[in-house]
User: Fold this.
Amino acid sequence: MGWQRTWVRILTTALTICVMAMIFAFSTQNADRSDRTSGFISNAIISVLYRDYAAQTPEKQQEIYDSVQFVVRKCAHFSEYTLLGFLLRLCLESWIGHRMKKRYALMLPAFLCGALYAGSDEWHQKLIDGRSGQLIDVLLDSCGVLFGAFLSNRLILAINRKQKGAE
Assistant:
């Protein structure tokens, strides 16, 4: 594919920075705004999964909402960091992949960069009104980074194999 082409480097770098900026923007939201953002998705899920939601007691409704909200927020953490890990690995491939004997060796620096970003993001959230930084979120985010880097690595290996087979 020509991972070291200038346009590939620019694209992967720009997309990686955009995802980091998106994560930063989400983390900058105060607690109320963050709850509204994820609450919109939670309410949509509740309307599909819990047809009798309106008939429930207010306490039961709150219990359902809180449990769905928890899952939505954790899935959001994992998903955004999976995307970051995917792009970090592609970005590293475009810049230094040609120097590596083993392509999977770039998964470690991609993981470390993403995990450090996750830690700094949680620390940043502690500075925002009503938000908190949680170690469990750093761990979840780091798992997302690792998964994204793994997916990216598989994509790179598949593309490289296909190109070698075409030669």
Observations:
- The chain has a mean pLDDT of 93.
